[in-house]
Write a structure and sequence with these properties.
Number of strands: 13
CATH superfamily of the largest domain: P-loop containing nucleotide triphosphate hydrolases
Number of domains: 2
Radius of gyration: 20 Å
Distance between the termini: 49 Å
Oligomer: single chain
Strand order of the largest sheet: 6-7-8-3-9-10
Largest sheet: 6 strands, mixed
Length: 270
């Protein structure tokens, strides 16, 4: 088997040196995978994604990325530019990511920071504007855009780097149905292009439609399942335990109804 893109070994993460964010995470990610990291709010999935992006670092354990240890020291060396050109991160909230005066500038920012020649930067921006169908927005101020338009610009600012690995934190958060369909089609196209796509989410529709593999985090911040989407979605008891779906009961006379809630939940009667 080829060397994994990411090798995560016994990673623990603590907030303020006390509060547990991740507990004993061990996993490998291969090139070309489409991976969903599934968990409830507060399970640590966004923290794990940020560690893979080099935006946070383990309190204990180790992470190897692209054949090198991923540490503050290595990301202060010549490896940093190589890593940033290969790994793109899309924040859950687009407002945390966009800051340039125009959409064109926003998409050009990353390649400029990597010292890519001006002609190539211009071509990359033009290609992304067309790929995402946002050319009419190119002279607009990003912060005046709608939520869906901001998400497109945030993704465009990463795609202009042409990364091999795309990390997305809660990519469907706040999107209207039309923009969500657009996003699914884009991610499906990136999969066909053999990009490695890693998504942190609590949205089961992503698991069903886009993931080839699912890693589930519990509210105790550890991995409780790692498998194919169909296996994960069939395991209703596990999804209940990790608070991805929930049940409530009510009584009509002598009949107790148990209702499961979630995109793929079943309604049972007893």
């Amino acid at each position: 088997m080829p060397e994994p893109l990411f090798n995560i070994e016994k990673v623990h993460y603590y907030y303020d040196n006390r509060h547990i964010g991740l507990k004993g995470i061990t996993m490998q990610i291969q090139s070309g995978e489409s991976l969903a990291i599934l968990g409830a709010n507060g399970s640590g999935k966004s923290t794990l994604l940020k560690i893979m992006a080099g935006l946070a670092f383990p309190s204990e354990g180790s992470v190897t990325a692209l054949g090198r240890p991923l540490t503050q020291d290595t990301l202060s060396s010549e490896f940093a530019a190589f890593f940033r050109s290969k790994v793109g991160f899309v924040f859950q909230e687009a407002d945390l990511q966009i800051f340039c005066p125009t959409v064109w500038d926003e998409i050009a920012f990353g390649p400029i920071q990597l010292d890519i020649p001006k002609d190539e930067v211009k071509q990359r921006v033009e290609d992304v504007l067309d790929m995402l169908d946002i050319r009419p927005l190119k002279d607009r101020q990003p912060h005046h855009l709608s939520g869906g338009e901001k998400k497109k610009v945030a993704i465009g600012s990463v795609l202009s780097l042409n990364p091999d690995i795309l990390l997305l934190d809660e990519p469907t958060n706040g999107l209207d149905p039309r923009t969500q369909v657009w996003l699914f089609e884009l991610l499906d196209e990136l999969r066909r292009l053999k990009k490695t796509v890693i998504m942190a989410t609590h949205d089961l529709s992503i698991v069903e439609d886009l993931a080839g593999r699912v890693v589930v985090l519990s509210e105790e911040h550890n991995i409780v399942s790692d498998g194919k989407p169909a296996e994960i979605l069939r395991d209703k008891d596990m999804l209940l335990r990790v608070n991805i779906i929930h049940e409530h009961t009510h009584r009509h006379g002598d009949i107790v109804h148990i209702h499961s809630h979630g995109p793929f939940a079943r309604h049972d009667e007893h």
